[in-house]
């Protein structure tokens, strides 16, 4: 069995700030504890952020997901809203993958990084369940990765959509655990 990688999607200022602090504070606390446990078990960690080139040269006006962002002026490289949220401390050995589309795989080096680390098991946490999480895990399935979703470390503005995706869609073809359950499973293992 190959390596496990914890994939952390879009935990960046501009996205986290779209949620009420009463939601993000406990979420970030759980995420930080889970990251610490993964590091303790020598599990690979990759951080993924969404950022566009200055002037949005990489945004097609017909793209329904990223096209409307150009009017906001947000998510441009170098801006504060594309920085990893300060509650999450990234180690220098943990790569940052910059994506310009919803899936973390499209147009990025993510697949190369995963293959070079012999990863065959992805553990996914991030925002939003109906966006980056959904698109990334669907593509990961097509690329033959085993996938675990951390239910309480995925977040969506629509709680019903989150619940349906986690319970009815993801659970059919992936393993789904709460973060604490997953941490208990990995203790003492180096590839879970």
UniProtKB/TrEMBL annotation:
<comment type="similarity">
    <text>Belongs to the isochorismatase family.</text>
</comment>
<dbReference type="GO" id="GO:0016787">
    <property type="term" value="F:hydrolase activity"/>
</dbReference>
<feature type="domain" description="Isochorismatase-like">
    <location>
        <begin position="4"/>
        <end position="178"/>
    </location>
</feature>
<dbReference type="InterPro" id="IPR050272">
    <property type="entry name" value="Isochorismatase-like_hydrls"/>
</dbReference>
<dbReference type="Pfam" id="PF00857">
    <property type="entry name" value="Isochorismatase"/>
</dbReference>
<keyword id="KW-0378">Hydrolase</keyword>
<protein>
    <recommendedName>
        <fullName>Isochorismatase-like domain-containing protein</fullName>
    </recommendedName>
</protein>
<dbReference type="InterPro" id="IPR000868">
    <property type="entry name" value="Isochorismatase-like_dom"/>
</dbReference>
<dbReference type="InterPro" id="IPR036380">
    <property type="entry name" value="Isochorismatase-like_sf"/>
</dbReference>
């Amino acid at each position: 069995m190959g390596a496990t990688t914890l994939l952390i999607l879009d935990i960046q200022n501009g996205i986290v700030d779209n949620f009420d602090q009463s939601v993000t504070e406990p979420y970030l606390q759980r995420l930080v504890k889970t990251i610490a446990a993964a590091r303790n078990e020598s599990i690979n960690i990759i951080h993924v952020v969404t950022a566009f080139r200055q002037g949005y040269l990489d945004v097609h006006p017909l793209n329904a997901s990223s096209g409307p962002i150009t009017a906001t002026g947000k998510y441009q490289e170098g801006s504060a809203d594309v920085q990893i949220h300060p509650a999450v401390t990234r180690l220098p050995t943990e790569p940052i993958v910059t994506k310009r589309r919803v899936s973390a795989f499209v147009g990025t080096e993510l697949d190369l990084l995963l293959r070079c680390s012999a990863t065959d098991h992805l553990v996914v946490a991030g925002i939003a369940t109906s966006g980056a999480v959904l698109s990334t895990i669907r593509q990961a399935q097509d690329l033959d990765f085993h996938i675990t979703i951390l239910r309480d470390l995925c977040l969506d503005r629509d709680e019903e959509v989150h619940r349906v995706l986690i319970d009815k869609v993801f659970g059919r073809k992936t393993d789904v655990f709460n973060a604490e359950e997953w941490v208990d499973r990995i203790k003492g293992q180096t590839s879970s």
